[in-house]
Structure formats: structure tokens, C-alpha cells
Write a structure and sequence with these properties.
This protein has a five-stranded antiparallel β-sheet. It is about 50% helix and about 20% strand. It is of the alpha+beta class. The longest helix has about 60 residues. It contains seven helices and five strands; from the N terminus they run ββαβββαααααα.
Length: about 200
């Protein structure tokens, strides 16, 4: 899938793409086909091949932008942050979580099979419902257990790395303070030596 995916707050995937639609009113008025530029959203449940689509915004030839769909404000408001990122060209890198191809527990073939099921990250596998987990097939529960264990270990590793970085910062600060103390001691000794010479 070439279009970027956004992980929504409710655990779904949102895919956005620009398309065109005929503007019947403008076409009739002009006597020729006039098209609107439309932003179409596709909602995908991880583990499902089905998509639900809706026009999120319709850009009319006169420059006016209107929300569209069954409930005009629903998707345009619900996914406003994702739409803004997409429209500003920041869609790349919107995949949140650990990509399947970066997870050493599975091979490229299984990663491709899972991607076809709209499962794009290790977090997606860990969060799959029982119904969608069954779509993976044999070994799905073991795969989910591996995903959960990987995420737990990563969380523990992140804590260890955070503590190590904090210790490194403290060690650097201690070294800095020791250097300052050494400089101060040298200055005090110099002042005391001058006082003894003067006496």
C-alpha cells in the first residue's frame, strides 16, 4: 500500500489520498466536465482486509473547502490532526510502533502476509482481538505472545537505557564539579601563598 497510514486514537488505521469527483452542478453550469479535488479517507481495522471509505473534504473549483459524507463534520473533525499532517506533506513516517520488518522474530514472508491483513506493527499484533487473531492462522496466539513479550522487554530495556543515560549525565556533572573544586582549591592556595609572602 503506497499511501501513508495513520494510527488513530481508537486503534484503527486511517489511509488518506487525493482523488477527483465530478461536480455535477458546476459541470452543468459550464457545459463541460468540472471536477472537485477530494480527500478520501479509508478506515481499516487491524487484522481485517475490509475498508470503509468516505470523502473527508471536497475542494470546489472556486477554492471553497467543504466537509463531505454522511455526517459532514464527522471524519473531518475526528481525524483533523491526521488530515493536517497529511495535507502539510508530513505523511511519511506516520507509522507508529515497531514496524514488522524491523522485528527479528518473523521473516519477510510473514511480515508481508501480516501487512496484507493491515497489521503493520508489533503493537498491532499484541493488540489484536481474538476474532482478528484467528485470521492469521496457525501459530497466531504464539505470535501474539511473542509480540507482547517483545514489547515488555523493550519497555524494560528502555528503562535501563534511561537510567544509564541519567547516570552518565550525573557522572559528567560530578566530573565538572570536581574540576571546578580543583580550580577553586588552586586559586585558594595561590591566594594563601601570596598572603604568606606578604607577611
Amino acid at each position: 500500500m503506497d499511501q501513508p497510514l495513520f494510527k488513530t486514537s481508537d486503534g484503527l488505521w486511517l489511509r488518506l489520498e487525493w482523488q477527483t469527483r465530478v461536480n455535477d452542478g458546476a459541470s452543468e453550469a459550464e457545459g463541460r466536465p468540472i471536477h472537485d479535488r477530494v480527500l478520501v479517507g479509508y478506515i481499516i481495522v487491524p487484522g481485517s482486509r475490509d475498508e470503509v471509505s468516505r470523502i473527508v473534504e471536497r475542494h470546489l473549483p472556486d477554492g471553497k473547502v467543504i466537509p463531505d459524507g454522511d455526517n459532514p463534520s464527522d471524519w473531518s473533525k475526528r481525524f483533523a490532526d491526521h488530515v493536517a499532517v497529511f495535507k502539510n506533506g508530513g505523511a511519511a513516517g506516520t507509522l507508529t510502533g515497531t514496524p514488522l520488518r524491523a522485528w527479528g522474530a518473523i521473516d519477510a514472508r510473514l511480515a508481508a502476509d501480516l501487512t496484507a491483513l493491515q497489521i503493520h506493527t508489533v503493537e498491532d499484533i499484541a493488540d489484536l482481538s481474538d476474532g482478528n487473531l484467528s485470521k492469521i492462522g496457525i501459530g497466531a496466539r504464539e505470535l501474539q505472545a511473542k509480540a507482547k513479550a517483545f514489547l515488555a522487554a523493550a519497555k524494560d530495556t528502555a528503562e535501563v537505557q534511561r537510567l544509564a543515560a541519567e547516570n552518565e549525565r550525573k557522572d559528567a556533572r560530578i566530573s565538572q564539579l570536581e574540576q571546578q573544586l580543583g580550580d577553586l582549591s588552586a586559586k585558594i592556595e595561590a591566594v594563601m601563598a601570596k598572603q604568606q609572602e606578604a607577611a
